[in-house]
Write a structure and sequence with these properties.
- The structure holds two protein chains of two kinds.
- Chain A has helices at residues 2-6, 44-59, 85-103, and strands spanning 26-29, 35-41, 60-64, 73-81, 105-115, 119-128, 132-134, 140-151, 154-162.
- Chain A is α+β, with helices and mostly antiparallel strands.
- Chain A has one domain (2-162): Archease domain (Archease, Possible Chaperone, Chain: A, domain 1).
- In chain A, the strands form three sheets. Chain A has a four-stranded antiparallel β-sheet with strand order 1-2-9-8, with helices on one face. In chain A, strands 4-6-5 form a three-stranded antiparallel β-sheet, with helices on one face. A two-stranded antiparallel sheet of chain A has the order 3-7.
- In chain A, helix 2 packs parallel to helix 3.
- By secondary structure, chain B is α+β, with helices and mostly antiparallel strands.
- Chain B contains 18 helices and 19 strands.
- Chain B has helices at residues 35-41, 46-53, 113-116, 120-130, 145-154, 156-161, 167-171, 189-195, 220-226, 242-257, 259-262, 280-315, 369-372, 395-400, 415-421, 424-433, 443-448, 457-466; strands at residues 8-11, 14-17, 29-32, 63-73, 75-84, 90-91, 103-112, 208-217, 232-239, 275-276, 326-331, 333-342, 345-354, 357-358, 377-380, 388-393, 404-405, 437-440, 470-483.
- Chain B starts with 7 loop residues before the first strand and ends with a strand.
- The relative contact order of chain B is 0.17.
- The chains are: A alpha+beta, B alpha+beta.
- Chains A and B meet through helix 3 and strand 8 of A and strand 4, helix 8, helix 10 and helix 15 of B.
Chain lengths: 163, 484
């Protein structure tokens, strides 16, 4: 898995060599109407990346529909600003959902050029959504019960999605 | 995860969360439920959310909860709150939700179940083929940017002008299918982009298109007024504003988070981000929300048109000849500026209905002439294995709940718990044994939306009927279900 994770720094144009499997590191949180996740990571970049991977893991199977298929990928750049880290986190996830809907992509690789408390810039690798089995529509990441905190080993976040 | 909120019994169907429960509550909470439903309601954090909504500036009377209440985000699902706009009352995108004007419409037919029971499967397959559904579904109804702006202003009227329905359909739609005051300039380019290919698409999750049969009449006179009889086939369509609505909500939650400090507003959950209705931010959201609401009404009008076409194809008969007339279309995620009596005086309030249906009583000026005598039709969809209801609004709802009632059965189990505990094949067999044929875009959806995941809609409707905030007309059961 570690090797696959490093692949997301090589996001350049349509290429057939992208990782198409992930084992996102997250737990589901029970919520009556919606779906929540808890994600732990060693640093902020990993936290933002793993949360995005978890979100797309809920949305679609991380395996393409056809065996041996190597989906075409396309690169996108995302820039976000916020007043604090939690807001930046929510903006990040909602921007990914919004882009995913308009560009019809499943994002599976993330390369942060910049990630501070108030802004971020990242490159995304997205594969055509039609090549994946889509399971759930996530309408948005919400502020309800949002907890993003520093822990002894890094960072932890709990977020609830409106599905 | 359960709630320990203090509850005082008002009567058999109403419970009060006193203002003293949480410092900062401006009004008490009032929950419509019986003792049995209350046990379920206590299982999650919904009651805490009822108390949190009571913090909203300008809130009047009470933070209300319908018997289908369950844990949402910010507002509970099944929550109603009115704010006095003349007294710095706020509007909150979280009090409407991401699926702005998610709602339901019901149409009748001339068919009796016995006449067409052998055709139900054909109908469901044909619906499945001709009505786009599923996550991110796109439709054949493609619109230009100029047309999309027209949809946002004209709502269902746009669809009727395109030939997808009649003037009579508009008369039988809340707000005539287009709420006035929509401001297309308040809608972001991204929201336009998300909406352009999704007109006339059902969507996914709990959205559905059902063929139903009336299995119980409660009020013969009202059934006569609506032209409904036992065994008659009806159709119900549940959908909303799709990606356009999600984007409008997201855009304005983002901007209103900053309004909390700007207007010195203290709420216990940032998802309750809000701004005074009369502020620049409040007006902008209201203008954009109305656009999304109109988009949803146009969408349900298109879905009904596609449904009528499918019936025409299967039965080789015009929809008029089959009597496929719209009974009504109601929103259940919306904020509306309405006049209500508060403390003996008429006030202009912003009524948030988040998972709640408008239920105006007889004689209300907002109702079309045909429903002035009966009261507004209130359409309550249940889960795919039990029942749905047609009710009418009452004067008591005007007095107690700002003319509002419940919106459905209400979830009981989380989607993950449902997926873990329910076997798809067993479920499909059980439904088939009950005479219910189900087809869904995703197999997972059927399990997540299984009857066991919901409260019993019969118990929920009993409460609103017995509490007097709506009156039962008739009950339906599903026979053909298309899930998104």
């Amino acid at each position: 898995m570690a090797e696959q994770d490093t692949l997301n720094v090589k996001v350049v144009g349509p290429t057939p060599t992208w990782p198409i499997f992930f084992m996102p590191n997250y737990e589901l949180i029970e919520h009556t109407a919606d779906v929540g996740i808890r994600v732990k990571a060693g640093d902020l970049k990993e936290l933002f990346k793993n949360s995005a991977l978890a979100m797309f893991d809920i949305i679609a199977d991380q395996k393409p529909k056809t065996k041996n298929q190597r989906p075409k990928t396309q690169t996108f750049t995302v820039r976000q600003k916020a007043d604090n880290l939690e807001e930046l986190f929510i903006n990040w996830l909602n921007e990914l959902l919004s882009l995913s809907a308009t560009k019809e992509k499943i994002f599976c690789a993330f390369n942060f050029k910049k990630l501070g408390k108030y802004n971020l810039e990242a490159q995304l690798g997205g594969c055509d959504i039609k090549d994946y089995k889509v399971n759930t529509e996530i309408k948005a990441a919400t502020y309800h019960s949002l907890k993003l905190q520093k822990t002894e080993s890094g960072y932890e976040v709990e977020v609830i999605f409106d599905v | 995860m359960s709630s320990e909120a203090t509850l005082e019994k008002i009567d058999d169907y109403r419970w009060r969360i006193p203002k003293s429960y949480k410092p900062g509550m401006r009004v008490p909470g009032i929950v419509y439920a019986d003792e049995k439903l209350l046990k379920d309601i206590r299982q999650d954090k919904a009651l805490e959310q009822v108390a949190n909504v009571a913090f909203l500036p300008g809130i009047v009377n009470a933070s209300l909860a319908m018997p289908d209440i369950h844990w949402g985000f910010g507002f509970p699902i099944g929550g109603v709150a009115a704010t006095d706009i003349g007294n710095d009352g706020v509007i909150s995108p979280g009090g409407v939700g991401y699926d702005i004007n998610c709602g339901v419409r019901m149409l009748k037919t001339n068919f009796q179940y016995d006449e067409i029971k052998d055709k139900i499967k054909d109908l469901v397959y044909a619906l499945f083929s001709d009505v786009p559904s599923g996550v991110g579904s796109k439709g054949d109804i493609r619109v230009s940017a100029r047309e999309e702006r027209e949809i946002l202003v004209k709502g269902a009227k746009w669809a009727v002008e395109k030939g997808y329905g009649t003037e009579e359909d508009l008369e039988c739609t809340e707000e005539n299918g287009a709420i006035q005051g929509a401001d297309p300039l308040a809608v972001s380019d991204r929201a336009y982009e998300r909406g352009k290919a999704q007109s006339g698409t059902l969507g996914s999750g709990n959205h559905f298109l059902e063929i139903q049969v009336i299995d119980q009449l409660y009020d013969r006179d009202l059934c006569d007024e609506f032209g409904l009889t036992l065994g008659q086939i009806t159709i119900m369509i549940h959908s909303g504003s799709r990606g356009l609505g999600y984007q409008v909500c997201d855009d304005y939650v983002k901007s209103m988070i900053h309004c909390l400090s700007k207007y010195n507003i203290n709420v216990p959950d940032r998802q309750l981000a809000c701004a005074p209705v009369n502020s620049q931010e409040g007006k902008a959201y209201l203008g954009a929300m109305k656009c999304a609401a109109n988009y949803a009404w146009a969408n349900r009008q298109c879905l009904m048109h596609l449904t009528r076409k499918v019936f025409e194809k299967v039965f080789s008969m015009s929809w008029q000849k089959m009597g496929m007339f719209l009974i009504y279309d109601v929103a259940h995620n919306i904020a509306k500026i309405e006049k209500h009596i508060v403390d003996g005086r008429e006030k202009t309030v912003c009524v948030h209905r988040k998972g709640a249906t408008r239920a105006f009583g007889p004689g209300h000026p907002a109702l079309p002439d045909r429903y002035k005598k009966t009261g507004q039709p209130v359409i309550i969809p249940g889960d795919m294995g039990r029942n749905s209801y047609l009710l009418v609004g009452t004067q008591k709802a005007m007095e107690e709940t700002f003319g509002s009632a419940c919106h459905g059965a209400g979830r009981l189990k989380s989607r993950t718990a449902a997926a873990r505990t329910i076997n798809l094949n067993t479920l499909l067999k059980e439904l088939e044994a009950k005479g219910i044929f189900v087809k869904a875009s995703g197999r997972g959806t059927i399990v997540e939306e299984a009857p066991q995941a919901y409260k019993d809609v019969n118990e929920v409707v009993d409460v609103v009927h017995n509490a007097g905030i709506s009156k039962r007309v008739c009950r339906m059961r599903p026979v053909g279900v298309m899930k998104g």
